[in-house]
Each structure stands twice: as C-alpha cells, then as structure tokens.
Specification:
By secondary structure, this protein is of the alpha+beta class. Helices cover 29% and strands 19% of the residues.
Length: 171
C-alpha cells in the first residue's frame, strides 16, 4: 500500500505528473494532505484505484452468457483486469487523475468484489492511513530515492514492490 501512496506522491515520483493535474485540488499533493488531513482517506482510495494491489482474477464461465455485448461460451475462462476496470471512463470521470473530490472514492475494484472481496481490505486501508499520516506528521518531505530504483515483484497476480527505497527529511 505504501508504494501506491508514494507512487502518487510529490513531483518527480512515478505517475504523479500524469495523475495529479489542474483538476486535482492544490499543487503538491503532500502539501495539500498536510494542510487538509481529512483528505487522506480519499487520497488512499485514489491511490488504490490507480495502483491496485491485485492485477487480475480469473473466472470460469458456468453457462453461456453475454458481457458487454460479447458472447462468452460456458466453460470459457475470463480474466478480470482490475487496473483497466479502475480506469474505465464509463465509470470514472478523468480516470487517470487523482481526484480528491470524487463523489464515490471507494467505488473501485482494487480489492475485488462480492464473495471474492479481499478479507484484508480494511486492514490495508488502516495501515495505509497510519503510514501516510505518520510520514506527513514526522517529515518535511519524502520521496522515492532517486539513487536507488524501486523494483517490482515478479508476479502475474499482485502488484507490489520487492524494494522501495524512501528518502525522508524530518520536520
């Protein structure tokens, strides 16, 4: 979760330039979150939506069906891509932008849905809020270390870092 928050953090951090634009309130998101900590929960949800911890789920189709105008035969396998669903312009206005005023910030599939919803979702949210709140309270700034590149776990199922070096300046 920390990587999702950091990836959407201050200028120079991956994804920030494309995710944080004029439609997002304020300039530097970390300055804004320090000034308005009530926005941390929404920021965490936007980070989850844009950098979902799960990449996909595979499902067997139990009977002939049609989904999105496409016929799918019984016994077929469907691959649900969460990153794509969480950036669907039919579901999200400005889907590639961190929008702290989004009407329904939790309406994403970062943790799955229905009976396949992640049992650890509440804990992940609590941990993300605690980590981000602590970093905001105890540092003047934090960024990914420009001299030590992060590395992603080699996984088809999850999206997480094996190595995520952080540089922080105490307040």
């Amino acid at each position: 979760m920390l990587e999702a928050v950091l990836l959407l953090g201050p200028d120079g951090v991956e994804h920030a330039d494309r995710a944080w634009d004029d439609r997002s309130p304020g300039g530097d998101p970390l300055v804004l979150l320090r000034e308005q900590p009530r926005l941390i929960d929404t920021f965490v949800e936007e980070a989850l939506r844009l950098e979902s911890p799960f990449r996909q789920q595979m499902r067997s189709i139990p009977h002939d069906t049609t989904l999105g105008g496409v016929d799918i035969a019984c016994g077929s396998t469907a691959v649900l891509l969460f990153g794509s669903a969480n950036r669907d312009p039919a579901q999200f206005d400005t889907p590639d932008v961190v929008d702290l005023n989004r009407a329904s910030p939790r309406r994403h599939l970062a943790f799955g849905h229905g009976i396949h919803y992640c049992m650890g979702a509440a804990r992940a949210r609590i941990e993300a809020r605690a980590v981000l709140t602590t970093l905001l309270e105890r540092t003047r700034e934090f960024t990914l270390d420009p001299d030590d590149a992060p590395s992603w776990a080699d996984s088809f199922l999850v999206r997480r870092h094996e190595h995520l070096p952080l540089k922080a300046t105490r307040s």
